[in-house]
Amino acid sequence: MIDTNDHQSPIAVIALSSPQLPVDLEFKRKKATQAFKGHGLPMGRCFGSKSGYRNMHPNCDFIPNANVFIRRGGKVWFGDLDLERDRPALELVARHIRSRLYVLSEQEGRFGESTRPHAAVVRDAVWHTGGPSRIPGLGQFLRGSGLSLGEAALLIRVSRRRLIGRQKPKTALEIGRRLKNFEEAFRPIGSKAGHRKWGHWWTRPNKKLSGKSPLQVLRSDEGLDLGKIAPMTHGLLFFSIGYGAMGRL
Predict the structure, then answer these.
(1) pLDDT at position 12 over 50
(2) Which pTM does this prediction carry?
(3) Coil, strand, or helix at residue 186?
(4) Three-class DSSP category at 235
């Protein structure tokens, strides 16, 4: 509404009226949300300056504007989290609602992502409650690729022991992401090459490598240039950029 009744005033007063908007349009509070406040985690909690908080708490594990998901219910909470100090409270909330909590970054859990599939939540989570867990998606990866446990470990730069055993949440989720990114890069390449199992592209002889398999070359430290032996797809380009900087776990 525009109020210009006072024609003597040189300034027009504009009064805008509309229904109050919710704090977060894409989020709907759920019953499980109530448990967080009871354990010292109010909805929308904010630590203030992000750089200031990190400077004051150098040992923090700070996730600004974090999003918390559960398997059945999607997103149930959002706000600033410091996993270094908030882990105990999050574990108590998980016990209270009898569901594992998955913590995602701001960009992975906001703006239309509040009801994303649970498999995607697990893939993109940075931490979860419940202690050590097995590697998410490992069985499906091995069945679909046709690779052995040792071959998979070599290709994603983790030890075989880490793939077999239970790992801390952050480690398990990171390995799960590596498996997913690797599959997204090489499944189309293996399928296009006509392999029944896409991972056989790595283990079968390759004419461009003088009859050696890509995996043999990788094991021999001869240097493997993927761009010369595989079609440069978007997935492969994305994977190759991060592969060189991927540390061994």
Answers:
(1) no
(2) 0.75
(3) helix
(4) helix
